[in-house]
Prior knowledge:
The complex is a heterodimer of chains A (446) and B (435). Chain A is 41% helix and 18% strand. Chain A is built from 15 helices and eleven strands. In chain A, strand 4 and strand 5 form a beta hairpin. In chain A, helix 1 crosses helix 4 and helix 1 (65-72) crosses helix 7 (190-200). The longest helix of chain B is centred in the first third of the chain and has 18 residues, at 133-150. Chain B folds into two domains: 21-225, Cytochrome Bc1 Complex, Chain A, domain 1, CATH 3.30.830.10; 246-426, CATH 3.30.830.10. In chain B, helix 9 packs across helix 12 (351-364) and helix 9 (273-284) crosses helix 15 (404-414). Chain B starts with 10 loop residues before the first strand and ends in a 9-residue tail after the last strand. Chain B is α+β, with helices and mostly antiparallel strands. The interface between A and B is large, with 69 and 74 residues.
Amino acid sequence: MHPYIRGCALALLVATPAAAGGVTSFTLANGLDVVVIEDHRAPVVVQTVWYRAGSADETPGHSGVAHFLEHLMFKGTDTMASGELSRVVEENGGSNNAFTSSDYTAYYERIAADRLELVMKMEADRMRGLTLSKDDWKTEREVIIEERNQRTDSDPAAIFSEQLRAAQYLNHPYGTPTIGWRHEMEALTREDALAWYRTYYAPNDAVLVVAGDVAPDAVKALAEKYYGPLEPTPGIGPRVRRQEPPQLAERRLRFSDPRVSQPYVTRSYLAPERDPGDQEKAAALTILAEILGGSGQTSVLAKALQFDSHVAVYSAASYDGLSYDDTTFNLSVVPAAGVRLSEAETAMDAAIDGFLKDGVDADQLARVKTQIRAAMIYARDNVQNYAQMYGEGLMTGLSLKDIEAWPGILDSVTADQVMAAAREVFDRRHAVTGWLERQGEEEPLP
Amino acid sequence: MIRVLVLALSALWASGAAALDIREVTSPGGIHAWLVEEHQIPFTALELRFKGGTSLDRPGKRGAVELMTGLLEEGAGEMDAQNFAAAREALAARFGFDSDSDGLSISARMLTENRDQAAALLKQALVAPRFDADAIDRVKGQIYAIIQSRTTDPGYIAAGDFDAMAYGGHPYGTPDIGSRESVGALTRDDLLAAKAATMARDRLYVAAVGDINADELGTLLDTLLDELPATGAPMPADVAPTIAPGVTVHDFASPQSLVLFGQVGIKRDDPDFFAAYVLDHIVGGQGFASRLMDELREKRGLTYGVSTWLATRDHSEVWQGAFNSANEKVAEAISVVKEQWARIAGGDLSEAELVAAKTYLTGSYPLRFDGNETIAGILVGMQSQGYPISYVTERNAHIEAVTLADLRRVAGRLMVPGGLRFIVVGQPAGVASDK
């Protein structure tokens, strides 16, 4: 858990623009934090407004309301008709959308750089001025249920992943899906959405990220003009979620569905996330995931399961440290034809045990680091993704300083740190193991 | 002596500060490429596309080109698969190998600091892939898993049904990944034949964007490509799609159905292509403002999203669309699509819709060109479809020239009221296949 107070992530930054490698930041008097990322290669700008409110901040029983409101944010204000924002953006050649996660909700417009003022005006307008007609919200509730049908209920892997996550978190709201549980989504109301809106949508609970062919001074002038007059919400408290108790018992889940054609085994371990001023362990886990599963040819799992033996057709390890509270470290194996899930899981565990015994291959660690350094160069080719990296970092409790320190911290990770992180994270008491199977072809228990 | 021909300069946007300076470069060895120099980030994006792709599979060898493409990075020259990967990782180069029904694409990103070594490594994959027996078995296993997964993927099921109906025995009529049986029977000789058929210089298009100048690119291309064969297999024949109107229900147990619909489309060199392109945008193009998005999602909540697209390929053309709806809503959604299709065919289009579509399409076009990798992909696509460099500056004028009369005429010519075939994968209530 972070001891940090909401809205103070940028507290160390000065109020006037200060360039830091093409990245400038400042805070408006009403508390809105602003980050400007310059990229003058193309006459394009991306504006993103991030709110420190995601599904993990929802009240129990109202799952899906963060995402429901995200949809309703396109339904108009006193000065904009329903759908007008998207229509105006598209008529100007731009694109726009929004996304909700467990830690944040964000809205973006991508448009010609000389139209930044237009989208700032509209985005600022709906930060405080949303109106919802009597009927719009009901149709939109149908739309989000169709979205759940499409993304989750039509896909057995997505259904299973929802169940696994619910089992991973005994108490923390990360166990509840961002889209919402269907029965709770069906009961969401206009009042639920508006209460959420009034609580969290305020300049002192948001970060504005503007990236592209723009000058920081010009962004500052526009931000002051449009976002500056918005009233902050007083008394937005610290971001406190229910935390995990000690996890003492390993969990195992099996799910079978007639739509499964390719069974697999997956395991997630509860793992620490990147914390402000304390990212070393997360950096070691990031490198560990690359070493175990970052390459289809040279990583530990691929070598053991796809080359030295032919147990698997695919294997992976993954870890994403951008999370406000505890995250997970994940392993998965898709067995080769004729290989049982129990055999695949045994082989996966043997590969991990072998790694814990043999340690890190020095050449492989060097290659992983070379690729991470290069990734920072390649990342600059896509300013929208670059902006996303900053926005997500700030939404998960990091400061700009933490975000900028990250590549250096990754580069300084030692083999010993990787092994220490591996020994700590691979604790089966904190783990959920899942078997996804085709209905009627389940493996009999021994 | 390096001889570089610069045939065209500076495609400038009508508005906006940045210029896109696309140059046509011919290497000393005679390879043509389009180049945009962009020295702000120390890497180069190189995009190669060989026209033809998986449609050049020989009869009975379906899946050969796809399998061969997947094996290009699985061992080359003196290196087995693991050594090749380790060498690429040590250089932090990124290579992508991909094939589709009209081409085989290779995308490379190479750091300036070790570009020559990265190119030398890529060359091994292009001219000396090993196709080792263990690598073939391993990649076949991955392909079987993908084929297996697609048997329960509604999107692939629908596309498979549609293509089989529209194209029959033409390569477009079957999945390019092949079947379990056809892939299982492929031999190393089949892969060598697939490579010889597809990866030849007579069908190659090249674009580079990034931290490289014309001389350096010319040298790199000659080194990289000079050992490729001069010619490959003849291109597949054109095919007219066969699309009977009606509904096909493909039973699939799921709470929601996927609906793919389509009719005959339009060729890229048709004088009405731009009008059709604008028309498609109005009917079901990108964004939230299209007619179908408004009718299905905004007004009725029948779907999370619906879109249409002109699927114009090198050898055939259809006009398609798709949406997902809960099984109990499918019947209504289909009838709304049919009704809109008929109304628009009858001329129900407004000046306001035309103006909105034009401002979107002309305004969004320059926004596509951001990022070295993205631009390289666009430039190679333009070349393989026969467009000149000047198209970048002329394209918006073609859109601007479309009038409401053009739109109505083209809607009347192209859109067949009652002419759509709907493929429904799911268990839709009150919807049945016509016999």
